[in-house]
Design goal:
alpha/beta, two-stranded antiparallel sheet
């Protein structure tokens, strides 16, 4: 538990697996894909592709390592009721995987309130101790906090509860080496800048979630089915953008 040299850490980090997103341009920006052993936060307005990206990752994480996969199962905590197994079957077909096996390898739970959401992590940890999981998705990590805690009076209690939940997620990422992907909702920013710069949105959860996530990705709509992903914060990726498209087969490269 003490100090190790940076060269040892560098050797450990070189073994970290990246999970492909389904879009080559997106993977290039992320230098391989979604990193395992850390928290990646994806935020954006509704219909920007957050859930579709999560569905695609549930399939790609099962692929062999040489195909950009994680050779492991996926665990999905759904707080918004937007998980659709049918989508996984469509995406599995694209990657040439057996649909029934893909569905069998995804453990799903619906969270109904914030305490239930936190309790599900205990169950998830015991499952991860038994079998190899490569991915854990929480979609969305913050939606239940918006309804369980109301007004400024409960703000500090909400942030403390959220901080504990995120800390548990980080512990699981460290302990089991899974890629933790959390989605986040946005809120309209109503300060002076909105007058000059047009309508602005910011992710909810404040600094607590900003500091807890290792990599933050912001999604926004482009033309038609095109979406733009921007690296907002990352310890090793430069701030840049990549385009991808949403199709029946999940997340794909933009077809010009």
């Amino acid at each position: 538990m003490g100090f190790t040299s940076a060269s040892q850490l560098h050797a450990q980090r070189s073994e970290i697996i990246q999970i492909a997103s389904g879009s080559k341009e997106l993977d290039r920006m992320l230098e391989g894909g979604i990193e395992t052993g850390s928290i990646t936060e994806i935020y954006g307005e509704f219909r920007t592709g957050k859930t579709q990206l999560c569905h695609t990752l549930c399939v790609t994480c099962q692929l062999p390592l040489d195909q950009g996969g994680g050779e492991g199962k996926a665990l999905y905590i759904d707080a918004e009721g937007t998980f659709r197994p049918q989508r996984l079957l469509q995406i599995a077909e694209r990657f040439g995987l057996n649909g029934a096996d893909v569905l069998e390898n995804v453990a799903y739970a619906r969270a109904y309130n914030t305490d239930h959401q936190s309790r599900l992590l205990l169950e998830a940890a015991s499952m991860m101790a038994e079998t190899r999981f490569a991915l854990m998705v929480v979609d969305s990590a913050t939606s239940l906090y918006r309804t369980d805690f109301l007004g400024r009076g409960e703000l500090s209690a909400r942030q403390m509860h959220l901080a504990k939940f995120l800390r548990s997620l980080q512990k699981m990422a460290d302990e089991f080496g899974v890629a933790v992907v959390v989605t986040n909702q946005v809120v309209a920013q109503v300060d002076g800048s909105a007058i000059f710069a047009g309508p602005q949105v910011k992710p909810i959860g404040g600094n607590i979630i900003a500091h807890a996530s290792t990599t933050r990705l912001a999604l926004r709509k482009g033309r038609g089915e095109e979406r733009i992903c921007k690296v907002v914060s990352s310890p090793c990726l430069p701030e840049q953008e990549a385009r991808f498209q949403i199709s029946p087969e999940g997340v794909i490269d933009v077809k010009d």
